Amino acid sequence: MDESNSKFVSGNGRTELAKFIADRHAKLMKQAARYSSALKDAMARGKRRYTLVKDVDDMETGAYDKPLPCFGCGIGWFSFLLGFMFPLLWYYAAFLYFGNYYRKDPRERAGLAASAITAMGFSLVLLVIFAFRWFYYP
C-alpha cells in the first residue's frame, strides 16, 4: 500500500485525520472571530459618531401617512360596500378606476378595481335579465 493512504486506513490515521480537521476548523473559526470583532468595533464606533438631526416630533408626514377618505377605507371600498344598496356607486368607482384616479394614491387601486369588476358583473346580470324578458315575455 501507498504510504499516504496507509495513515487513513490504520486506527492511528483516523485520529490524525480528526486532528487535521479540528485544526483546520480552529483556523477558520479564528478568522471568523477576528472579522466579527472588527465588525462589532466598527458598529460601536459608528453609533458614537452619528447624532440625531431632527426631533421625532418634528418629522414631516409622508404622502401615504394621511388617512384615506370615506372613513379611512377609501373611495373604492366605500363605493363597493354602498354599491349593494346603490349600484350606481359601482359605476362611479369604475369611472374613477378607468380614469386612473388611483395614481394620486395607490392605496385606492384595489377598492376601485373591486367596484369596477362588480359593476361589470352587475351589468352582465342586468343584460341577461332584460334579454330573458325580451325573448320569453314579448
Task: Please tell me about this protein's structure.
The chain is an all-alpha fold. The protein has helices spanning 3-9, 11-49, 74-82, 88-98, 109-136. Helix 1 crosses helix 2. The chain is elongated, with a radius of gyration of 35 Å. The model has no long low-confidence stretch (mean pLDDT 76). This is Ribosomal protein L18ae family. Keywords: Membrane, Transmembrane, Transmembrane helix. It comes from Arabidopsis lyrata subsp. lyrata (Lyre-leaved rock-cress).
Give short descriptive properties of this protein.
138 residues, 68% helix, elongated
Task: Describe how the helices and strands are arranged.
Blueprint: H1 3-9, H2 11-49, H3 74-82, H4 88-98, H5 109-136
Ends apart, CA distance between termini:
104 Å
List the helices and strands in order: HHHHH
Largest β sheet strand count, sense and barrel closure: none
Overall outline = elongated
Beta strands, count: 0
Poorly predicted ranges (pLDDT <50, ≥5 residues)? none
- Rg over alpha carbons: 35 Å
Integer count of domains? 2
Percent helix range: 55-70%
SS class:
mainly alpha
Q: Which whole number gives the mean pLDDT?
A: 76
Q: Beta fraction of the residues?
A: under 5%
Total helical elements: 5
Outline of this structure?
It comes from Arabidopsis lyrata subsp. lyrata (Lyre-leaved rock-cress). With 138 residues, the protein is mostly helical. Helix content is 68%, strand content 0%.
